[in-house]
Write a structure and sequence with these properties.
The radius of gyration is 28 Å and the shape is rod-shaped. The protein has 130 residues and is mainly α. 18% of the residues are buried. Helix content is 85%, strand content 0%. It contains five helices and no strands. The model has no long low-confidence stretch (mean pLDDT 82). The protein starts with a helix and ends in a 6-residue tail after the last helix.
Length: 130
């Protein structure tokens, strides 16, 4: 009987170790997957939001502020304000057209990049223009 109990105890210990190893492996895989999913989801959402805002409100520089480019955002906002102030002159129309085109082009570029490329270029690499 003692030999049987010892074998049973060894088998139980071995099963517990296998279960523990499997649980650790599953937890590590889940953690890695969750990190990838959440970081990818944030990049995707920001890419789409910034791209659409660049197309719609690009001349105001809203997309620049969302990406953390305050200087570039103020440049676009200031140029648009100057354009509205001088719109009665011919130059104001050109300024407003130029800022709108910049926003449109940047919005299209943002939306056509892959999620990873957008994240690496504009959020990590901090490329401010185009």
């Amino acid at each position: 009987m003692s030999e049987e109990n010892k074998d049973f105890g060894d088998k139980a210990e071995e099963s517990a170790k296998e279960f523990s190893d499997g649980a650790k492996k599953t937890a590590d895989e889940f953690t890695a997957g969750a990190r990838e999913a959440f970081s990818g989801a944030g990049g995707e959402n920001k890419k789409v939001l910034v791209g659409i805002l660049a197309i719609i409100l690009g001349s105001l520089g809203v997309h620049k502020f969302l990406l953390g480019y305050q200087k570039e955002g103020f440049i676009l906002l200031g140029a648009t304000a100057i354009g509205y102030i001088t719109v009665c002159f011919v130059i104001g129309g050109f300024i407003l057209t130029a800022t709108a085109i910049v926003g449109l082009i940047e919005g299209i570029i943002y939306l056509t990049k892959s999620d990873e490329e957008f994240y690496n270029t504009y959020q990590v690499g901090k490329k401010p223009w185009f």
